[in-house]
What does this fold into?
Amino acid sequence: MSSNVRPENMKRINTPELAQAFIDEQVAAVRTQVGDKKVLLALSGGVDSSVVAALLIKAIGKQLVCVHVNHGLMRKGESEQVIEVFGKALDANLIYIDATDRFLDLLAGVAEPERKRKIIGAEFIKVFDEESAKLEGISFLAQGTIYPDILESDGVKAHHNVGGLPEDMEMELVEPVKLLYKDEVRVVGEALGLPHGMVYRQPFPGPGLGVRCLGAITRDRLHALREADAILREEFDKNGLAGKVWQYFVAVPDFKSVGVRDGKRYEGWPAIIRAVNTTDAMSATIEEIPYALLHHITDRITHEVEGINRVCLDLTPKPIGTIEWE
Ligand code: XMP
It folds into this structure.
C-alpha cells in the first residue's frame, strides 16, 4: 500500500493544470494497482466519494461498482443528483438502494442522540455488507479518505464517520485522494467535470438529517425539516450566501407551539436556522444574515412547509454550542 505521509515537496493543487497532472498520475496508478479486477465504492454523494468515483470511472470505467445507500436522511434532491450525475451522465455501474424504511423503522422512538448515531452507523454497514455480498469478483474497496482524515484519525471527529466501513472487509484499499486536502479535492473534482454544486457542497454529517430532526425522528417532521432546509439552501444560493457561509442548515425540535393560520389555531414545530463560519469546525462564529432575507425565509418556510409555524435563529457560537444540535 502507498504511503500515508504527504511528501514535503508535493505542490498544493490549486490550478486546473496541477489537477490534470494529478488525475493523469492517479489514473495510471489505479490501473496498475487494479488491473482487470473490480472495485467497490460506497458513494454517498459527498465531495470526497464523488471525486473518487469520477476519478475511478475515468481510470477503470465499468470495473468500478458504486453503491449508493439512501438512508432516508439525505437532504432534498441529493440521492436524485447521485443517480443523475453518476448513473446517467457518467454512465457508471451504480447500484442504488433505497433503505429509507429500514433506517426509519429502526430509529422510531429513539430519542437519545448517541444512540441514533450508532443505529444509523451500524445499519449503514449492514446494508452495505449485504449488498457487497451479492456481488461477485470484487477485489478492491475504494474509499474517499482525504489527508485530514489521516491526520485527525485519533482526534475529536473520529466518532463522526458513518460512511466508515467494516474493518474486517477483506479487500485491498484504493484511496486515490488520501494525500489531498479538501480544497485540492475540489479543484480535482472540477477538473474531472463534476457539477460545481456537488464539488463545493457544504459539509454534511454522515447521519444526515438524523442529527437535525431532534429527538425521536418521525416521518412527518423529517419531511418538514427536509423541505425547510431546501428553502434555506435555495435562498442562500439566490442571495450569494452559499459560497460565503461555511455551513447552514435547519434543525427541527420535537415540540410544538401554538400558532394561528387562516384564522384557526395551528400547532406546529419551530424551524431553527443555524449559519456558521469556521475554518476547521473546531470553533465557529455566527454569520450575520441580512434581516430582510431572514424575514423572506421565515415567510416562505411558514407558508410553504406543512407542520412548521415558527422560525428561530440560533446565535450561539462554538464553543459553547456545537455546530450540529446533536
Ligand atoms: P459539531 O456538531 O461537532 O460538528 O460541532 C463539527 C462538524 O462536523 C460535522 N459533523 C459530522 N460529520 N459525520 C460527519 O461526517 C458526523 O457524524 C458528523 N457530525 C457532525 C458537522 O456538520 C460540522 O461540520
